[in-house]
Amino acid sequence: MFGPQTTFVLYDEEAAKVSQILQHLLRAANAKAIFLVDKNGQMIASSGEVAGMDTTSLASLTAGNIATTGGLAKLIGEKEFSIQFHEGEKDSIHLSIVGGRVILVVIFDLRSSLGLVRLRVKRASAELARLFEDIGRKSEQRQGDEAGLNPFAEITDDDIDNLFR
Least packed by Cβ within 10 Å: which of 77, 94, 103, 122? Predict the structure, then answer.
């Protein structure tokens, strides 16, 4: 699995798979909206009733929330809290860390229940984790291929200096 500092690129095919998983989760959990957020606070994908939401702030605050509770987890001897739940009067938020790299955010109201959301998130998280593992492997392979194809990869600054002397 790729680490938290690894950057990755979602190509069209992979982005479509992510979108398909999120849309299925939206229907299966009877949720209002779903977001996939990078641990650095960048929005990766969304589905559902997102119009009118400040998704940039939502992504940033979600990542901050995960970081903060991660600090709390360490204080009591845990690695992290991989699942969080915040209940409001009308809307609730379920957060889960997927593959150690991304955060799945499910916003739901009284039309759904925490039990249903948790059940559906578990399946979607497994699918997303497998997908991001594949993306990580492909990314590493692409980087290796690019290094092998770059005719300048082995040229050092000394070589360039020697060339112009």
Answer: 77
